[in-house]
Amino acid sequence: MAVAKDDVMWIEEPEMGFWEMTFLPAILDGLKTTIRHVTHYDPVTQQYPEEKPSLPLHYRGVHRLNRDEKGRVKCVACMLCATACPADCISIEASAAPPDWPDRDKFPATFVLDELRCIYCGMCEEACPVDAIELTHIYDLTGETRESMRFDREKLLAVYDKTKDDPRDPLRTRRGKLGPAADFGTLPTVAPATQVTAGDRSAQSTAPGTIHTYNNPRPFDDPGGAT
User: What average pLDDT is seen over the chain?
Assistant: First the structure.
């Protein structure tokens, strides 16, 4: 789209004075900065690894899978962390919970997190509804092979066992219960995400995008029944 001439504001280039054209003021400013650094020497270099850095509490390092009060893995295999992960580094295989685990339906039969692929954004921790996955202060992560950097469930639980009593990794899960998801005795009925009127064109569609119509409450059984 063409821009009207009245909408354009022209700016004149400032003219340089005599001293500015000699660049002497800029050179003097640079010399002052150099002298200030020489006379006020304040090094910030740490002699790592002899000196360990003091990291803030919100530092996001190696992941861990938390245990509940019975020592079981707290994850309920809802897949929300894997869905929220922008790096696609979490792989979960869900399985039915053992009969002696009545407080949940599923648990992670396998849980693999690729530490090399992770970008440590913390989205998995934010998405988890039961506070099962957290990031710790551990930063010096090493491994001889790429496969060794793929942390499975037992390895992530071992990180929890190693860090649970460390004041740098405060637990946010000591509530004595599984988590917010355990508060539901029965799951409430969820309303359809999309509900359209009978005369709308989308109500005539046989595509699976139509979830529910007033005239055809079971579109997946009889998609052509919508009128």
Answer: 80
CB-side exposure of 215: number of CA atoms within 13 Å? Answer: 13
> pLDDT (tens digit, 9 = 90+) per residue, 173-212?
554 444 455 555 565 555 544 555 666 655 555 544 434 4
Residue 128 pLDDT > 50, yes or no? yes
What are residue 73's phi and psi, to 5 degrees?
Answer: -65, 135
* End-to-end alpha carbon distance in the chain: 43
DSSP percent split of the chain into helix, strand, coil, nearest 5: 25, 15, 60
216 backbone dihedrals φ, ψ, rounded to 5°: -135, 85
Question: How much is the pTM?
Answer: 0.59
Query: What is the residue-wise DSSP string for 123-149?
Result: HHHHH-TT--EEE-S------SSTGGG
Distance CA 4, CA 152 (A): 61
d(CA 193, CA 211): 8
CA 71, CA 64: separation in Å to the nearest integer? 14
* Pick from 105, 107, 109, 136: nearest CA to 120: 136
Q: Which amino acid is at 7?
A: D
